[in-house]
Design brief:
This is DedA family protein. Belongs to the DedA family. Its main location: membrane. It is a multi-pass membrane protein. By secondary structure, the chain is mostly helical. It has one domain. It is 82% helix and 0% strand. The protein is built from 10 helices and no strands. Helix 2 packs across helix 9 and helix 3 runs antiparallel to helix 4. The longest helix has 69 residues. The protein is globular and about 50 Å long.
Amino acid sequence: MFHSVVSWVAGLSGPVVYAVVAGLVFCEDALFFGFVLPGETAVVLGGALAAQQKVSVVWLAAVVVLAAVAGDFAGYQIGRHAGRPILDSRPLRRHRDRVDGARDLIRRRGGVAVFVGRFVAFFRAIMPALAGVSAMPARVFLLYNAAGGLVWGVGFTLLGYFAGHAYARIEHVAGRVGAIVIAAVVVVGVVVWRLRDHLRRGRDGKDRPGTGSG
């Protein structure tokens, strides 16, 4: 499913790009879509399409920031009004340790946790709802949410934009095959890094006091 969505987004152009990228970013934060497709993937793809002049990079960045802020606030409102059912939902039950860690971070750091959580895929998907469940004041949430959405939205849009330009230059110099090989190496590197990070988190969880047999 992930690769199908990526291929579909990469084939879009014009106003549809704005709508699809904004929708994916919004749903990631408001409806836990981040468990399926991390929002930065859609944003980076959108930035790459902007490098191909299919959309405006300025307008795309603005749309992404607005979608990120609005999606987070929707997730916050859902958490604030739904309360306990959010914590007992199936997606969160499967990641209980990480959810508890996120709630502890909110208790200790408040709005800073909202800002920092924007840059970690799992936390980005759940932090708004957890902030609502924790009864964080709306004005505090909005301040840090807007700051995080601005930095994240502009940053990942430009990342995709410059990556798209770099790909075009590489393709011109090395040919299409060389460019595809280099792109594949980069993708494999990212996948390996994410896998190692996932395995490390798993080991850390097992090594916590009280989790062993003794």
